[in-house]
Fold this sequence. Notes:
The protein is mainly α. It has helices at 12-20, 25-35, 44-60, 66-77, 84-110, 120-131, 136-153, 156-168, 172-186, 194-208, 213-225, 227-231, 238-252, 256-268, 275-281. The chain is 71% helix and 0% strand. InterPro entries: TPR-like_helical_dom_sf.
Amino acid sequence: MKKYFEEKSLPVDVKKHYKGNKKLLSNVLDYLRDKYDFERIEDINFALFYSYIEIECATTIYVDDAGAAFQKVRCKIDKLPKTQSILSFIKELEKLERLELRRRKRLEKLMNLDFDSLELKEKKDVAYELSDSKDLTNKGVAARYFLKIYNETKDIHYFCNYASTLYKSGNKERAMEEYDEIIQLFKTEKYPDKGWVMGCIYADRMDYYKNDKKKFREIWDTAKADPYVREVPFAFPGYLGYVIEFTEISFNYGYFDICDELLDEIKNEKLPVPQNIKEHYGL
């Protein structure tokens, strides 16, 4: 979305926080929600900024959040004076709302089509589109489709997508079994993104065994010594994805020594720190 606000005119604390988190807008949104009541904001520039952050996060992190974000922003913006910037913002918002409506109708259609009759490229598009949804039923169907694509192509990439989507759909125990299968496949199969996949596997395993302290630490020790993971460049956004995930999981479940270790790496590489961790450590 275009920026209809002036950064220099934002509140000092918001401007500082935004400047330090442009690569991780979810941090900015967490800060805004914690410090400011959106409904009470009267400054047009600030309201446009807040609206921009809401929409950017909804449309880039989980598309299923977009509808609720649009409605929240619409209710606020409609109450503000109709300046040129507000009118331009509303015009773009209306386009996004129409796209969101079409997307939802398409998701409904994808859930009811004859998947097996599609061409391979169409099958891939459908599986990815459903997997982007937050809805667990959609993710479950996407996992099944990825497995079908793997069986058709024997491309290990789609088996990795299948296992990861299976975990996100809530079928975690089965996903753990499939992750074991991936690790065995990696011993004999060539695949260019083994480090990225292993990072995701370790993150999900840490989440799965969060209440088993011994197992959790065993997984972490294995993860940080994994040769595939160590080969992945420490740069945004590749390695950042699961380094941040390792950190958040460790923090959320009380493994603060592991979080400390990861946080040192994050700061050394000047990567964005999640908002809740920033506040806890006073960063």
